């Protein structure tokens, strides 16, 4: 194409555009010389040249190409550091090398002095002391080597953290395809791409706010934990600002769009990732405390060796070797690498502390619908009461359910579409009562849709003996959604849950991995729950449970000393998800469940649970192996240095090399 035919960013966009074709094996663009290398299947050359020739401007690059740029920058930076060190050693005269060693050492000495001013005797002080001691001996070569290795270690750690953030951000970034646009007569389901600044969007309970904006009307409790880290919802009403990625817990809002998608959600992702990194595992916290606690003993060893031998060189070899540096570097790298690998496997983990909880858990609790059963259940039958029209009943249910992201709601809406029942929205507002049902006014009639508990107990709708007989005859083995109109039972929709194909295999694998108790909690009836448990071999289940009852059950398990994983997908699972030691939400889960959960599965199956158990247990095995290697390697170097078998510069070099090797090993993948 010619030199500088496109920028680096445009080159990434060109790669993405070409990779979108199934017959393109790989595409790589180089902006420096305008080169484009495409590997493709036979008989596609003419189409490929025609496609490139007609492209006026490459599309915007995908987010994953930021990782490519980061990798190139890292390789370039590390090459510069190493090349500069050896070129200075080969080409510069000794006085100039000494000047650079002193100049470069100043930043480490400054960091060490700041730590001392704060009353800390930590790794920064140790690094500063080692560099200063080398300079005091006029061993400028050793000082330069120490500084180079410290820079490489810092660069390696920074690269790992940045790459993990970008990988996690890429995994978390999910586009909302359609939104409810407020029209003059009714709300209209509209593609996100067509939304403009100033449009009015209606956001109901359980849904995420898609774009930054200002509340035009309505009141709602909004969970803003994705931005602020605060789990408690806050009241938002007319005039208040709301932000993309936050979730409406209760109520309904009309939001006037202030900024479009490219300017909002990424900001909330960045804040989320920053917060995630602060959720350190207990092991990581202990490692950092241990690392700083060991530093004084390094200085003590320095003093003792100097006192007994009178050799500053031998004493300096003690100062240049410490356990804390490797401990403090490798442990967070192990955790960050595990989080990155989980993200690459379609598992979003919000912090190292959750990996630790997942590895240590002995009990796992599942919701049924959309979790152990497929997230796309099927409407088996619609049963009207009192000679009501069956199609009208299904149409009414779909009209209300289309506003909510639960799997049963999607099944009802899908069935209406299959039967070509036009359920165009006619009503003004819908109220969702968490874990119970929906209340709305439609054509002047009050419509209730929901569970048996909601319709017949909370709302007091009467059930005649004839209707009771129909219920007992038609409902066994099904999940049932009840419909009442003007306080009279109008009928029921029986939804058939099919067990996930991978569920039995996953449960068996979890048992082999040390999960001793597998429990299912559901709001469905006893017959449907029992059928699923018999199919999957689950011994313990609880049926017809309300959200607060699920949460209470989780707390009782924890009170008995169990470490509990909770897996769910719906709004009604949120209290239980919050109460567990670690919580997992399915890909099809509601926005509020995803906001509450510690871990999100980004694929459609349950195998992620087995992968995460393997990954989390491997993580802490690696951390403990690292401790053993650190102790063995550094103890050997201390022994050799104290007895004068290696010089201080060799001791420093070997120590930093061993640390670098362990850091590199800590970044290896956990699963082949």
Which consecutive residue ranges, at least 5 long each, have pLDDT under 50?
Answer: 171-175, 269-279
Radius of gyration from the CA trace? 31 Å
Query: Strand count, sense and closure of the main sheet?
Result: 7 strands, antiparallel
The structural class is: alpha+beta
Head-to-tail CA distance between termini: 39 Å
Structural shape: elongated
Give me the count of strands: 22
Helix content: 40-55%
Tally the helices.
24
Strand composition percent? 15-25%
Mean pLDDT: 79
Task: Please explain how this structure is put together.
This protein is of the alpha+beta class and 672 residues long. 52% of the residues lie in helices and 18% in strands. It has 24 helices and 22 strands. The strands form 4 sheets. Strands 3, 4, 5, 6, 7, 8 and 9 form a 7-stranded antiparallel sheet that branches. A hairpin with a 2-residue loop joins strand 16 (479-485) and strand 17. Helix 3 runs antiparallel to helix 6 (140-172), helix 6 crosses helix 8 and helix 11 (324-344) packs parallel to helix 24. It is elongated and about 100 Å long.
